[in-house]
From TrEMBL:
<keyword id="KW-0408">Iron</keyword>
<dbReference type="Pfam" id="PF02310">
    <property type="entry name" value="B12-binding"/>
</dbReference>
<keyword id="KW-0808">Transferase</keyword>
<feature type="domain" description="B12-binding">
    <location>
        <begin position="46"/>
        <end position="131"/>
    </location>
</feature>
<dbReference type="GO" id="GO:0031419">
    <property type="term" value="F:cobalamin binding"/>
</dbReference>
<dbReference type="InterPro" id="IPR034466">
    <property type="entry name" value="Methyltransferase_Class_B"/>
</dbReference>
<dbReference type="InterPro" id="IPR006638">
    <property type="entry name" value="Elp3/MiaA/NifB-like_rSAM"/>
</dbReference>
<dbReference type="InterPro" id="IPR006158">
    <property type="entry name" value="Cobalamin-bd"/>
</dbReference>
<dbReference type="GO" id="GO:0051539">
    <property type="term" value="F:4 iron, 4 sulfur cluster binding"/>
</dbReference>
<dbReference type="InterPro" id="IPR020612">
    <property type="entry name" value="Methylthiotransferase_CS"/>
</dbReference>
<dbReference type="InterPro" id="IPR058240">
    <property type="entry name" value="rSAM_sf"/>
</dbReference>
<feature type="domain" description="Radical SAM core">
    <location>
        <begin position="155"/>
        <end position="373"/>
    </location>
</feature>
<keyword id="KW-0949">S-adenosyl-L-methionine</keyword>
<dbReference type="GO" id="GO:0005829">
    <property type="term" value="C:cytosol"/>
</dbReference>
<keyword id="KW-0479">Metal-binding</keyword>
<protein>
    <submittedName>
        <fullName>tRNA-2-methylthio-N(6)-dimethylallyladenosine synthase</fullName>
        <ecNumber>2.8.4.3</ecNumber>
    </submittedName>
</protein>
<keyword id="KW-0411">Iron-sulfur</keyword>
Length: 443
């Protein structure tokens, strides 16, 4: 069979890629391609980089989507189905709402595709495709296939080498989709398997696409030790929780293995908010010291903060930005609380009648789609806009980065790029175009 696997494009200036180069390749799709028996021919279509040819003949189109991309995924699915092509939908959003996705697909894959995908292909060949595929249990990460990177044009990605080492997160924060999709128990690949995959990569910089690379400190310690022993020195970055700062040895190993940056979810400076969302791993009183320790090991931090939690009032924006500036975070991502389908947060807000928008296109964490408790929706949106503008002002960037910081050119480029994206976003808001434009479908 001829199979196309499609990653729909973002159409929010804060998150969309440049047409020439995207940041990361779609690791999920090249993993799916590796699970596909070699008798089939697979094409990867990353819509951020290439227009989709709806006249191309495929026996099967597979599309993966998170919530904000679901409407675009449905448009693409409908266009292919109108031409008689079989379409399968999967990923976070179709897994959370399989009935909704079913209206746009011949089959929906709920959860992780390992095991299911091969069955689905064989059912399709036998003319016995089922409407929904659900796993009986979560797949083991032992002997995982290595993604088909040969199907990508690596020149079109800023960080073409991405690797996943773990799945799942033990913390289950109420706003997060990760533990619902991947489970609360932590699964990890054998360290030797990860090392073998890393050794096959060409680039010097690797992104570990884990939700929390230090979620299991024992595993992280073994992984970092082996990474440090690789004959070819690499640099890497990933997402990690703050517990890394409590473990000096783990920090030292991370730095020795090439860690140059961590994306860390601080989420809030309010202990009450953290308790309410279940982020027990974070202790506000430790934040400053934790940042210092991580910085002392030469590791940059992109801090993630959520606005609109129930204890937040209009003072939250200035307080948070000041904290991020004073602690010289190399980058920050401010997000508006968003009740994604499948999360406990959404169930609570639905019960409380606080959800004001169900257009998934607005679920970009840059729009207010619910009624906040201690401020108006407008104040929340304006505060969010102000926070980005202030944190990424030129004065703020130069105060945070200084002139002598490690990896300064990369960090300056990152900050200026984020600043540019934010101004595009702001322009769209100022022109009154709050609803994101619909991308065109080729005829
Ligand atoms: S710690 Fe991070 S990945 Fe884990 S549930 Fe909380 S927000 Fe999600």
């Amino acid at each position: 069979m001829k199979i196309a696997l499609i990653a729909p494009a973002w159409h929010d200036p804060l998150w969309e890629s440049e047409k020439e180069k995207s940041i990361f390749p779609p690791l999920n799709l090249i993993t799916l391609a590796a699970l596909t028996p070699p008798r089939h021919e697979v094409t990867i279509l990353d819509e951020s980089l290439t227009d989709i040819d709806y006249n191309a003949k495929y026996d099967l189109v597979g599309i993966s989507a998170m919530t904000a991309l679901a409407p675009r995924a449905y448009e693409i699915a409908d266009a292919f189905r109108a031409k008689g092509t079989t379409v399968v939908l999967g990923g976070m959003h179709p897994s959370a709402l399989p009935e909704e996705a079913s209206a746009h697909a011949d089959a929906v894959v709920v959860g992780e595709a390992e095991g299911l995908w091969q069955q689905l292909l064989s059912d399709l060949e036998d003319g016995k495709l089922k409407p929904v595929y659900r796993p009986e249990e979560r797949p083991s990460l032992e002997h995982m296939v290595h993604p088909r990177r040969d199907l990508l044009n690596r020149d079109r990605y800023l960080v073409p080498d991405t690797v996943q080492t773990t799945r799942g997160c033990p913390f289950a924060c109420s706003f997060c989709t990760v533990s619902r999709f991947f489970g609360k128990s932590f699964r990890f690949r054998p360290v030797e398997d990860v090392i073998q995959e890393v050794a096959e990569l060409e680039g010097e910089v690797i992104a570990f696409i884990d939700d929390n690379i230090v979620g299991h400190p024992g595993y992280a310690r073994r992984l970092f030790t082996e990474l440090a022993r690789l004959p070819r020195k690499i640099k890497w970055f990933s997402q990690g929780s703050l517990n890394i700062a409590r473990d000096e040895d783990l920090l030292r190993l991370a730095a020795a293995s090439g860690c140059i940056g961590l994306f860390i979810g601080f989420e809030s400076l309010s202990p009450g908010n953290l308790k309410a969302v279940g982020k027990a791993v974070n202790r506000v009183e430790e934040y400053r010291e934790a940042i210092k320790r991580i910085h002392d090991h030469g590791i940059a931090i992109e801090g993630a903060f959520v606005f609109g939690l129930d204890e937040d009032d209009e003072s939250v924006f200035e307080q948070t930005v000041k904290f991020a500036q004073e602690n010289r975070l190399e980058a920050a991502q401010f997000g508006i609380l968003t009740p994604f389908p499948g999360t406990p947060l959404r169930e609570t807000m639905e019960r409380e009648g606080r959800i004001t928008c169900n257009d998934w296109r607005e679920y970009t964490i840059s729009k207010v789609v619910f009624e906040p408790k201690n401020m108006s929706a407008r104040t929340l949106q304006e505060g969010f806009n102000w926070a980005w503008q202030e944190f990424y002002s030129l004065g703020s960037i130069s105060r945070r980065l200084g002139l002598v910081k490690k990896h300064a050119p990369i960090l300056w480029a990152l900050n200026l790029n984020i600043r540019k994206r934010f101004y595009h976003f702001l322009e769209r808001i100022r022109t009154g175009n709050f609803t994101l434009p619909r991308p065109s479908l080729a005829k």
